[in-house]
Amino acid sequence: MTVDGGVPRPVAAGAPATPDDAPAPVPARRVPDATVARLAVYLRVLTEMLARGVRTVSSEVLAEAAGVNAAKLRKDLSHIGSSGVRGVGYDVSRLTAQVESVLGLTRSHAVALVGVGNLGHALAGYGGFAARGFGVAALFDVDPALVGTTIGGVEVLDVAEIPRVCAERGVTIGVVATPAVAAQKVCDALVGAGVRSILNFAPTVLSVPAGVEVRKVDLAVEMQILAFHVSRRGPGTGGATGSGPSASETEKVFG
Q: Do 62 and 129 reside in the same domain of the chain?
């Protein structure tokens, strides 16, 4: 799946590597989409470091853990106004807070998931979303056999309730996990309810008005990309007799 991050709670990190504990102001300039995706990966790594009590980290170590080169990492962090201290590196707690701020993770987000079939049911029951600030506030489906059931303590409602419920529960992110034929209608209902960020698992392209952000997750396409890398390694380096996809390649799918 897409790339993931976290909403960690900073631990005591000792003396900071910078003179001020507070994150530096984030520049107003636009952060490239590719950088945003990598920031989410950096955040996951930083969160793990915080949990281990790591106080400072060099760009080389952080880059290696995130699967990028150090020059690219430093350029990415420069987009958010962050720079390490020569000979010391980055203060992990400070940098974590700064990346969280850039990614909008200083507040919780209410998520509405539409389509609770096999994939949707799994997504709805995954507790990791709430732990990272993405609580599932509403579930919807068109199947009468599913409407009225409960997943993770949230009742499945009929899709006709999308406008009312999304408004009442302050939904900011919609997840579409329906068959392709129903996805556009569901998307329109979410947008009509004021949802401006949509994660699309349906195997189709959604049409949305300006100001609405859509991220598409196509697991089949991701598998095809991995198959390409396996084939590039040549005979004997993958498949049944090899090691299979590398850890960095697998992370592109499962985060």
A: no
